[in-house]
Every structure is written in structure tokens, then in C-alpha cells.
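Protein entry
_____________
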Amino acid sequence: MDIGVISTRYAKSLLKFSTENREEQKVYEEMQILSENFRCVPALQEALKNPVYTDAAKIELLKSATGGEGTTTRSIQRFYELLVEHRRADYMVFIANSYITLYREDKNILKSKLTVPVPVSDSVCEKLKRIVEKESNRLVDFDIQVDKEIMGGFILEYGTYQLDASLRTQLAKLHRTIRN
């Protein structure tokens, strides 16, 4: 069976189960942490595939990668047990990403990214967030990244829209104009 189909089915089940337990927001946060840990620590995926590790060790590894023992939700703990029992632990990276996508669709959340050359105040972030929410008619999950390479201005991305008002881009355009 296709990895995408399997991961989506498990993610849908997790979303339904966590919603019934009123933990879907916390599970969403846990899946973001887990997804980031899979991205930063490739050995995590390899460990879940390794047949030498016991089922209990795989469950503990997943809990640790999600935030640690005692901090994971009941929904996640039970889900990890089910996943390992059905020999699907190595699909968890795909399930986590599918859950994040399904949760955002369910809650009408739009992922947005703001890239700036220096840290900006919370009030500026809130103003931009409100503008994007008004334009998109959706809630916005705002991610702010600092990148000195853009030199000045900002780059705002949401959905398929990108507004590049960076000094780096403006200088590159000027340079191309002068060369022609």
C-alpha cells in the first residue's frame, strides 16, 4: 500500500481521536515538534526502522522526540502504542506531516512566513498577521525568520503568494537593469 495513503489514514484517525479527547491543539503542537526532530535528526527515522530496537524502546524514542515522558498527551501515547503494535512506527514522519496538514485544513489555518534582516517587534508581527488574515480570510500560523542576507526590507509568503520587498532583490533588479 502507498505510504501517502497509509500516513493519511493514520493521521485522520489521530485527528479524530485527539478531537474526541479535546487534545487536537496540543497534538498539533506535538506533531510540529516531532516533524522538526525528524528533519534535524535523520537517525531518528533509521532507529524506528531498526528491528533490533524493542517495541517499548521505539515508543519511548517517539515520546522523547515529541517532548519527553510526562509531557505528551494521552492521545499521542496511545497512538504510539497502536502504531508500534501494527508495525507502522517507521511511517511516523509521514503521519506527523499529514496530521499537520489535516489539522490546518480542519481549523482553516494558513501557514505564513515572514523573513526579515533583523528581529522585529511583536506589534509589527501582529499587524502583518492581521493583514494576512484579512486578505486570506483564514487564521494564520505566522513563522518569522531572521536572514541578514536580505539586507533590508522583508519577504512575506503565504499560500501561493510571495511579496519580496527585500533590499537584496531590489539591488539585483537594479543591477540587471543597468547591465542591459
